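Troubleshooting log. The previous structure file for this entry was overwritten by mistake, so regenerating from the original sequence record. Sequence copied from the archived sheet and checked twice against the printout by T.R.
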Amino acid sequence: MHDGTELRGLIIQNTPDLVVLETDRGEARIPKEYIRRIDDAPNGEAIFADITDRDALPSWRSIVHDLRTHDGIWRFEQIPPTAIDNGLLRNIPYLSFRANKQWEINVYGDPQKPVAIEFGIYGSGRPRQKTRQLFREFLAGHLHDKNQIRALYSLSLKQRDARGGKLAFRLIAPDDPDGYGGTWIVVYQPELLAAARLSDKAYAAITRPFEKVNNPDGSLRADKWEENGNWLDQAMQALTGKNRELRGFYRDQNGVFQVLTGGT
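Regenerated output below.
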């Protein structure tokens, strides 16, 4: 920078007037007039390539970074978490992200050290083979043990639960009480779930009713885009003391990710 400071991170967008940089402290939007020089570092130095323990789950930043660079993802945005009032993940706080139109990725507990990660797609029918393959390949890429990978791929409507080391795996169907009209693959740490749960009152303050965020088919309510964005800004400020770090991205007609702004 012109004042002598140096910022390091991943460049999300670089325009004639602005650089959007994702750092280890969040998203920074830097006017070009403040920048003296930009040095590109090798990918191996990216701060998002976190090394996780054998039985731990990746941080939300690692997940976001990997999904943003995946060819199968053409739109990605943070959305308000909707209330889960029963089942395995009841009352556990989480960050929620929508990929494309009906895929959802949820990170439960401490975003830096999650107790569970969930991939899902809305709709009463069985997800297409390509979608199931994408979810499983992504999750398998963050596992460290062949028994865990075997457990992940063993999930089916006939075998809903599996275990690999300290990680457990579950398939949730649309008609299950905690399915909410979607098919979900969950990877979680069973011993940590209970300690991550909040009281009903505390949980209600950081989640929204399903119908405020989604249409009945699970697609996002376009008429609530601004309202939900404002709610999420306030919720993230209350939870972390900081502004929301991530709004989202979309892939333009040239295949390049652009930052979501306003009602894009």
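Confidence is low (pLDDT under 50) at residues 44-49. Archived copy saved in two places this time.
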